[in-house]
Automatic annotation (TrEMBL):
<dbReference type="GO" id="GO:0046872">
    <property type="term" value="F:metal ion binding"/>
</dbReference>
<dbReference type="GO" id="GO:0030894">
    <property type="term" value="C:replisome"/>
</dbReference>
<keyword id="KW-0413">Isomerase</keyword>
<keyword id="KW-0238">DNA-binding</keyword>
<keyword id="KW-0479">Metal-binding</keyword>
<dbReference type="GO" id="GO:0003677">
    <property type="term" value="F:DNA binding"/>
</dbReference>
<dbReference type="GO" id="GO:0043138">
    <property type="term" value="F:3'-5' DNA helicase activity"/>
</dbReference>
<dbReference type="Pfam" id="PF00270">
    <property type="entry name" value="DEAD"/>
</dbReference>
<keyword id="KW-0378">Hydrolase</keyword>
<dbReference type="GO" id="GO:0006281">
    <property type="term" value="P:DNA repair"/>
</dbReference>
<dbReference type="InterPro" id="IPR027417">
    <property type="entry name" value="P-loop_NTPase"/>
</dbReference>
<dbReference type="GO" id="GO:0009378">
    <property type="term" value="F:four-way junction helicase activity"/>
</dbReference>
<dbReference type="InterPro" id="IPR001650">
    <property type="entry name" value="Helicase_C-like"/>
</dbReference>
<feature type="domain" description="Helicase C-terminal">
    <location>
        <begin position="218"/>
        <end position="364"/>
    </location>
</feature>
<keyword id="KW-0547">Nucleotide-binding</keyword>
<dbReference type="GO" id="GO:0005524">
    <property type="term" value="F:ATP binding"/>
</dbReference>
<dbReference type="InterPro" id="IPR004589">
    <property type="entry name" value="DNA_helicase_ATP-dep_RecQ"/>
</dbReference>
Length: 632
């Protein structure tokens, strides 16, 4: 059988046809054209590069800032019998070296790279020797300074053209304004503009933005009325626990989730929610990326998100089964003020940024002229407390240090412990005979994991402790002993963000920070906050307002958001009031108070408003303080 995109789709995913726009994107890529694909959250973006990656000879390189999503996609591909590898912050030099060799000499079809890895000479040199068939850039809005989630490391992507000039770029995103669409193509060096776009409209979603003094009470009523499973987004870790406890106390099976929870506990919480044992997960924005649950009936925000792009993406996790679902934003007047305060704190003085750099270098005891390429586990809360720094300003300072090429900070993600034997099987056997102490752990590794002589394999020290009936600490000590004797390489697990210094340490007073860029970013951020205010103050239709923000002008009102429902309700009310007035006045003329009191619909002011409208239209006439119906 001749392989084509449909046969690949059927063979590996079991689908008989593509979703809207997917096939057009695949065809564009297969023709060797640089392509920007705009698809809503849950629209199936990964298929768009995975199918052409499999159909062509060579390897598809995927750039993604979301390590958790990379790992998830690698696992999914492997479960379908497709060779895939991910390289991200926190992996050791030798581990990366072996993985890249497998991409050049092995059968690997997909290499997932965190964007900060493009700073590495090792990675760039090995990419040169790979037969790359496609560069896929996920979350492509991160390359644009006009985007809501600008990542300086994304600016390195354009330089990949120097390695393989004829290989096309496929940039994918779910959120891009018209400015961002232009900027992505310019930053990636598209020779010809080529945008394939699916509408941002989600017709099954009833967007709501409600000003509410009692947000907790309103949230509870929504959860009970809508039913099904959902997500409640809050600003910080403390709130996740407080809101989850409130829901539990009111009989709603709920749990909390944030980046500070250990990996095992996170997995348990996610599984309970996926299996509907937990109805509501209360989370920070750490929850959601790569989590594809189709039957989410509501997404409630108890705090205003940082931008409409972030809101659209998080709200879009509702209703992926195309059934009715409700993204609801609950806010108070004070929340609007907090949003502007947050903006102010996001742009610290240059002297503060320089001071943060100085403290970082001291924190890790890096000498002047040293530290280039060094990786460290990084806990921003601990660091900020140690030096008495504001948390939000410190995080912002790190982003500007990254923009100017001094360091890179990756997201928090769990990286399991890894092990690789550094001697061959015969040498290892001799060592076992001579060192009875290590024999049980070596046998356990060999029985449990294949390929441990060729590449690093993820291991679980707790499982070994259980099998060998030894304390966890003893297992770690044995593995560290194997490393000290150069029998194996042992890399311990971590679930903290990774900080990498890109340059050798300099005196912080000589540290260059781009003041013009700081000023431009502030202007962009102000525009994003003002767009949020405009959305909250919208009078016509929430969906129409969102679509307009993303450049889709002239769309119809949705009919299902809070504004449309209120308008429709008022129209129905007015119609009922008119019917009542007609029936009453056809029977006999009535005075104002007598007529208004006899109408059973709506409040008094609404009844009078409709009556005055009927007088203006000539349907009702007032003579001598009596009202008459004039038409039949």
């Amino acid at each position: 059988m001749v392989e084509n995109s449909l046969s690949i789709l059927k063979q590996y995913w079991g689908y008989d046809s593509f979703r809207p726009l997917q096939e057009d994107i695949v065809d564009s890529v297969l023709k060797g054209r640089d392509t920007l694909a705009l698809m809503p959250t849950g629209g199936g973006k990964s298929i768009c590069f995975q199918v052409p990656g499999l159909l062509q000879e060579g390897i598809c390189v995927v750039i993604s800032p979301l390590i958790a999503l990379m790992k998830d996609q690698v696992e999914q591909l492997r479960s379908r019998g497709i060779e895939a590898i991910a390289i991200y912050s926190g992996m050791g030099y030798r581990e990366v070296d072996i993985a890249l060799d497998n991409c050049i000499f092995g059968k690997t079809k997909f290499l997932y790279l965190a964007p900060e890895r493009l700073y590495s000479d090792l990675v760039r040199e090995r990419l040169r020797y790979m037969k790359v068939n496609l560069w896929a850039i996920d979350e492509a809005h991160c390359i644009s300074q006009w985007g809501y989630d600008f990542r300086p490391s994304y600016l390195q992507i354009a330089t990949l053209r120097e390695l393989h000039p004829k290989v096309p770029f496929l940039a994918l995103t779910a959120t891009a304004t018209p400015d961002v669409v232009v900027d992505i193509q310019e930053k990636l060096g598209f020779t010809t503009p080529n945008v394939l776009q699916r509408s941002f409209a989600r017709t099954n979603l009833g967007y709501m933005a409600l000003e509410e003094e009692n947000k907790m009470g309103r949230m509870l009523r929504i959860v009970k009325k809508v039913g099904g499973t959902g997500v409640v987004y809050v600003r910080n870790r403390r709130e996740t626990q407080e809101v989850a406890r409130f829901l539990l106390n009111h009989g709603v099976p709920a749990d909390y989730y944030h980046a500070g929870i250990g990996m095992k506990e996170r997995a348990i919480k996610q599984d309970a929610w996926f299996s509907n044992k937990t109805r509501v997960i209360v989370a920070t924005n750490a929850f959601g990326m790569g989590i594809d649950k189709s039957d989410v009936r509501f997404v409630i925000h108890l705090d205003i998100p940082d931008s409409l792009e972030a809101y659209y993406q998080e709200a879009g996790r509702a209703g992926r089964d195309d059934k009715k679902a409700f993204p609801v934003l609950l806010y108070q007047r004070s929340d609007r003020d907090k949003l502007w305060t947050s903006l102010e704190n996001s742009f610290p003085e240059i002297t503060f940024i320089q001071q943060v750099y100085h403290y970082l270098a001291n924190h890790y005891q890096i000498a002047y002229g040293a530290g280039k390429g060094s990786f460290f586990d990084f806990d921003i809360v601990e660091f900020s407390k140690k030096y008495g720094l504001d948390l939000l300003q410190t995080l912002s300072a790190l982003k500007f240090l990254e923009r100017d090429g001094w360091l890179v900070l990756s997201e928090a993600v769990y990286i399991p412990s890894r092990l690789k034997f550094e001697i061959d099987f015969q040498e290892l056997y001799k060592f076992q005979v001579q060192s009875a102490k290590y024999d049980p752990i070596i046998k356990a590794v060999l029985r449990t994991y294949g390929g441990v002589f060729d590449f690093y394999v993820p291991i679980n020290e707790y499982e070994f402790a259980k099998k060998l009936k030894l304390p966890y600490e003893v297992i770690v000590e044995l593995l560290q002993g194997l490393e000290k004797q150069q029998i194996a390489s042992y890399l311990k697990s971590t679930d903290k963000p990774q900080l990498q210094f890109l340059q050798s340490r300099v005196d912080y007073k000589n540290l260059y920070i781009d003041a013009d860029f700081l000023r431009e970013r502030r202007q962009i951020r102000e525009q994003q906050v003002k767009a949020l205010y405009q959305y909250l103050d919208e009078k016509t239709c929430r969906s129409q307002a969102l679509l307009s923000y993303f450049g889709e002008l002239g769309s119809d009102v949705c009919g299902v958001c809070d504004l449309c429902l209120t308008r429709d309700f008022k129209a129905v009310q007015a119609e009922k009031i008119e019917q009542e007035i007609r029936v009453l006045l056809l029977e006999k003329p009535l005075g104002l108070h007598e007529l208004v009191d006899a109408i059973p619909v709506a409040d008094e002011s609404k009844r009078i408003q409709v009556l005055r409208g009927l007088v203006d239209l000539g349907k009702v006439e007032e003579r001598n303080s009596q009202f008459y119906w004039l038409t039949n």
